[in-house]
Design brief:
With 121 residues, the protein is an all-beta fold. It contains no helices and eleven strands. It has strands at 2-7, 10-13, 18-26, 30-39, 46-51, 57-59, 67-72, 77-82, 91-100, 107-111, 115-120. Strands 2, 4, 5, 6, 9, 10 and 11 form a seven-stranded mixed beta sheet that branches. A four-stranded antiparallel beta sheet has the order 1-3-8-7, with no helix packed on it. β9 (91-100) and β10 form a beta hairpin.
Length: 121
């Protein structure tokens, strides 16, 4: 039905920047909200940022000013620009999308496979 594929993760030095991408593909009517979450082993998956269908954004308070979420609806893609990275940002980052299909209340939430971000000190 719907696949979300993240890319852009990797290794970066503290203070550096990284840009994550998540592209959605498959059969659907519309992508509504999209978001980024992160999770380290033993930790609960936590919100990084979300962006609504019309572009409204929401960020984890601790990340405001460093991370920026955006989307390109023509490409069904959401991005996460990460600046001033810290070692504590090391996590697997997951893309999320709320998707509508054909018909009322025909919606579902999908997750990508995750992309590793490692910040060295």
């Amino acid at each position: 039905q719907v696949q979300l594929v993240e890319s852009g993760g990797g290794l970066v030095q503290a203070g550096g920047s990284l840009r994550l991408s998540c592209a959605a593909s498959g059969s659907f009517s519309r992508i509504n909200a999209m978001g980024w979450y992160r999770q380290a082993p033993g930790n609960k998956r936590e919100l990084v940022a979300t962006i609504g269908g019309v572009g409204s954004t929401n960020y984890a308070d601790s990340l405001k000013g460093r991370f920026t979420i955006s989307r390109d609806n023509a490409k069904n893609t959401v991005y996460l620009q990460m600046n001033s990275l810290k070692p504590e940002d090391t996590d697997v980052y997951y893309c999320n999308a709320d998707v509508s299909f054909w018909g009322p209340r025909a919606t579902a939430t999908y997750w990508g496979q995750g992309t590793q971000v490692t910040v060295s000190s």
